[in-house]
Q: What sequence folds into this?
């Protein structure tokens, strides 16, 4: 079973989880970056506003072909209680995703808010089957229990595809 993890990371927490998941489940990593530039003053405010509005932002890579994969995982920080505009744009940039199983994971400093239901909406709008999500608070990114829960979520989704 071929597994791809598509993620966006700002502080390194989501990247850390994605790398752990790739190692534990033999997954391929695709990191997505925001191409928009912001000043230090407006960076946080404008990005949170875009997250609240469930907007997209220009990303690199601009297109992601996932036709070779059976299972997809999407990782995102939580901004303003929702996934980032970057991961929204990454999901929109997919080709070959229809009919695939997909899961999501989030890193957050406070509460995950509406992250799971928003990600589910974006994933299902692209014709994928949403198999669940897990939110991990930043203080728990090294927690073996949380990492085990995420690996089990991936394994359950792999069984659903096979």
A:
């Amino acid at each position: 079973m071929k597994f791809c993890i598509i993620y966006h990371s700002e502080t390194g927490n989501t990247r850390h989880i994605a790398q752990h998941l790739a190692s534990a489940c033999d997954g391929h990593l695709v990191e997505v970056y925001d191409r928009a530039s912001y000043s230090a003053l407006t960076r946080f405010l404008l990005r949170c506003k875009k997250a609240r509005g469930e907007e997209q932002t220009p990303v690199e890579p601009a297109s992601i072909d996932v036709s070779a994969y059976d299972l997809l995982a999407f990782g995102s920080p939580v901004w303003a209680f929702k996934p980032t505009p970057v991961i929204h744009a990454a999901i929109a940039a997919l080709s070959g995703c229809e009919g695939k199983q997909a899961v999501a994971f989030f890193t957050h400093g406070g509460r995950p808010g509406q992250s799971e239901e928003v990600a589910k909406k974006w994933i299902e709008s692209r014709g994928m089957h949403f198999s669940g999500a897990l939110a991990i608070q930043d203080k728990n990114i090294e927690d073996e229990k949380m990492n085990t829960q995420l690996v089990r979520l991936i394994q359950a989704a792999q069984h659903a595809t096979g």
Summary: The chain has one domain: 3-161. The CA atoms of residues 98 and 105 lie 20 Å apart. The helical segments are 13-25, 43-52, 85-92, 115-125, 144-161. The chain has a mean pLDDT of 95.
